[in-house]
Write a structure and sequence with these properties.
With 343 residues, the protein is an alpha+beta fold. A nine-stranded mixed beta sheet has the order 1-15-14-4-8-9-5-6-7. Helix content is 32%, strand content 24%. The protein contains nine helices and 15 strands. It starts with a strand and ends with a strand. It has one domain: (Glycosyl)asparaginase (Glutamine Phosphoribosylpyrophosphate, subunit 1, domain 1, 4-Layer Sandwich).
């Protein structure tokens, strides 16, 4: 029987940006996130229930793999696949639209023992991109495959392939149509050069991501991240989610990291690797390292987002500078903790 535990968190507010970090949870075997989500004022009881149910299902799926003797990679893949199949998250089905009206998906996975990794970017037919990323890691000599080549590789490996229309949902379509309408109305007020730049989303939920970090019985860490990207991104744009060292990183000597937020900042600051480096070379805890990178370095640069961190001792913590973060974790004994905002 799974036990639900909602614990407190520490919240700091500085100037105009939220600065937050959860209390450390011990004995965690799997932690997940579902993106920084919607602003609190936009959260409805129905959406709250749907998000929490999705996070719980993902945690249960990953935990089941570990209980059956599976690896941390198995747990990460299983948890992320659940979230990729749920339209409430921006990954897999329910992915946001590019400015060309397409759904382009990215994912990566990494294990901490040998630092093997795999990733896919810009795929349009792979039902579960996280499984595609794992196939790249285990079935190819490469780390990152993109576009049609990645789609073709996934099909060759026997992964489930779907029509591109599978990923589209009505809420995501309405979101891109609203942006297109605003862009058309603004064209008269812009120069030609400015009109070529796609409008960035006004809602944080339109650049969400899902991710997972796990520690198995052999002491091996793993991390994975999957996303539909940013609403109205340029076709072909790639964010941090499939970039090892930016959105995803795992190192048995320190921690497993998965990130979410405005990907360009996470690439520039090599966020996941920076957190691990501070833990390895400065001796910082996961809480201190992630707080420095997310709530200081990114904050000062104007970058919004979050990181979940699971260290080699099973200590799990999150840091984020947005209003909320869909997140959860499960301990060895099956205790589940799920949060969205300050709880």
């Amino acid at each position: 029987m799974l036990r639900i535990l909602i614990s407190g968190m520490v919240l700091f507010t500085m100037t105009n940006m939220i600065q937050a970090a959860d209390q450390v949870v011990a004995d965690v075997v799997l932690g997940i996130h579902g993106g920084i989500g919607v602003d609190k004022k936009e959260m409805t009881p129905e959406l709250d229930k749907e998000v929490r149910a999705g996070l719980k299902s993902a945690l249960e799926a990953g935990h089941a793999k570990l209980k059956a003797g599976g690896s941390s990679l198995d747990a990460v893949e299983a948890a992320i696949r659940v979230m990729e199949d749920l339209p409430v998250f921006n990954a897999g089905k329910g992915a946001v639209f590019t400015n060309a009206g397409t759904n382009e998906l990215d994912a990566s996975i990494m294990e901490g023992k040998t630092k093997k990794a795999g990733a896919m970017a810009g795929v349009m037919t792979v039902k579960n991109p996280i499984s595609g990323a794992r196939a790249v890691m285990e079935k190819s000599k490469h780390v990152l495959l993109i576009g049609k080549g990645a789609d073709s590789f996934a099909k060759q490996q026997g992964l489930e392939i779907v029509d591109p229309s599978y990923f589209a949902t009505e809420p995501r379509r309405k979101a891109i149509e609203e942006i297109w309408k605003r862009e058309e109305e603004a064209k008269k007020k812009r120069s030609d050069a400015e009109s070529l730049q796609p409008e960035l989303p006004k809602k944080k939920s339109e650049y969400g991501t899902v991710g997972a970090v796990s520690l198995d019985g052999m002491g091996n860490l793993a991390a994975g991240t999957s996303t539909g990207g940013m609403t109205n991104k340029m076709a072909g744009r790639v964010g941090d989610s499939p970039i090892i060292g930016a959105g995803t990183y795992a190192d048995n000597d320190a921690a497993a990291i998965s990130c979410t937020g405005h990907g360009e900042f996470f690439i520039r600051y090599a966020v996941s690797h920076e957190i691990v480096s501070q833990m390895k070379y400065k001796g910082l805890s996961g809480a201190a390292a992630s707080d420095d990178v997310i709530n200081k370095q990114l904050k000062n640069a104007g970058g919004e987002g979050a990181a979940i961190v699971l260290d080699r001792a099973g200590k799990f913590v999150t840091a984020y500078n947005s209003e909320g973060l869909y997140r959860g974790c499960i301990t060895k004994d099956g205790t589940v903790q799920i949060k969205i905002y300050e709880e």
